[in-house]
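cron nightly-structures :: item 1 of 1
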Amino acid sequence: MRVMPCMDIPACIIPCSDPRYEKILPSAPPVRGFCPARLIIAVQTRYPLPMDDKSKFEHPGFLPINDALLTRESWKIFQIMAEFVEGFERLARIKPSVSIFGSARTAPDHPWYQLTVDIARALSDAGFSVVSGGGPGIMEAANRGAHEGKSPSIGLNIQLPHEQSSNPYQDISLNFRHFFSRKVMFVKYAAAYVVMPGGFGTLDELAEILTLVQTGKTRRIPIILVHAPFWEGLVDWLRDTLVTEGTIDADDLDLFRILDTPDAIIDAIFDHYEHRGFEPSEEETRIMLDL
């Protein structure tokens, strides 16, 4: 497409002392096929020119709030509140429970799927409710194993554009629109986290619980990564890069452990609570109110 010259806004570019900016002055004639007006817009978009006080406070961020624009967002508060209220009411009596995470894309004939079924069944028979994201893959395997066991199988389902569909192995099923309210439910009643191989969502949940424990926003619980070959690369990076660069402490690597069998996972959880019981202490309960 040919670009016609803009005859009424001639301009040339001259350097400024600040290399981030280029100054536009009306002086040079237009060049065939070149539009100075478009150049002005491009330069100002990529390198915004400094504003004086007057122009700064004309920015939309300083304008009075338009209530009409906030109406829909304000009503979302009640939807969010409803998700928390229903979650608290439905899950308050499931303790002790273990939250299991992993890929939604793992097929039923994959070894990780069957391993998750075995882990969830062992946890359920040992008296733990099992909580998963309620979807397919590893989540389905977790609910399936728990459903076959002696304790409740819980699915915290979320509405997504793709990938998420509820699995049929849920004794208690909740539905969420918002990730953040769903995350609170995973943490609030969990006596342990079992993290199977997974993608971004699994890594997100792992990072969330590690951050909450590290910063003291929740109590210390067993965080167990399953299948060493999958996690060893991540652990090497945490140790060789984050610890080396000082962005985490070496002791932070003790917040989790890697185990590979259902029996080892059960033993690790019971060992953690041997001298204290599964219920949070009074101080831990107070802290967890601010999740």
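cron nightly-structures :: done
Strands lie at 12-15, 22-25, 97-101, 129-132, 153-158, 172-176, 190-195, 223-226, 257-259.
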